[in-house]
Specification:
heterodimer, A: Arp2/3 complex 21 kDa subunit ARPC3, two-stranded antiparallel sheet, 9 helices, 74% helix, B: mainly alpha
Amino acid sequence: MHIAEGVITGWPVLAYTLAGIGLMAIGTQGIKKFHREFAERRPLIGMGAAIIFFISLIPIPAFTGTTSHPCGTPLVAILLGPRVTFALTGISLLLQAAFFAHGGFGTWGVNLVALGLAGGTVGWSAFWVARRMGLPILFAGCAGGLLGDIATYAFSGVALATALATAPHPQYDFASYLTVIYAAYAPTQIPIAIGEMLITGLALRHALRQRPEVLEDLNVWRSYAAA
Amino acid sequence: MRAALLVAIALSLSAPHAIAQMPATGAATSSETRPGRFVGMDQSVNVDLAEKAGIPARKPYINIEAWGDLWNFVLLSAGGVCGFVIGRYWDHIWGRRRTT
């Protein structure tokens, strides 16, 4: 998911960075709103940031002999909301670019759009759609985790294919690049997406069993019951 | 509960070390990649394709590999402190159970 420093060049860097700054502004408003509405739950913001930072950085080995990262943003978006997730993802990616050589400052915006916007929003939406369909929290969480992970890498593939197709020496056109990238991602990322699916669903079910009042306070469970 | 806290602290102590040991997948061009299994997909797909298309990844602005074990020291210290703080104030994150 981390597109490395220097791979995206020219005006797309500016466009993605502006989009990232916009997402950070939206996220900051979301955090302020969270502070007002859930004053006693403010430490959860720190925990959400730690979850995204750790999960999106840890390399998980796959059967293919390569490693890749899960996302963590679907789970945090379900718990704290997608807007808060934008800001936490932006901060996490900035630290990863600065101190862990993952991603980069020039590709911070595109990585934020992929991980925060695509991953967080799609994961959160899938969870809510599944909930509206009356699915238990385990399956709704699984849907959020799986689709959020896939959406992150789907967007990364599109962004990368666009950059490669307009590179100085492109080997393929956009559609062919996209096919090549998805074919290369799939064997490694699909097992990891299934893992993220299970972890997200089980984590939400565990939280509901152990501390239902927290999910009620965050409007995760109460709305589910009403739905 | 005490066992769970101990596990959390142990993970906090060990995880940063594991991260510090992992290869910087997005850090360098493919010609500088360490050979062997379990190269990151960021490197094996994104960076390699980009290099072939004429847009090689640049080295990170902050090169932590040049720091040697100093980076391990920083991460382990921070992970240890954070682990103990999280263990001590765990209830501040999740709140205390309601007793109704």
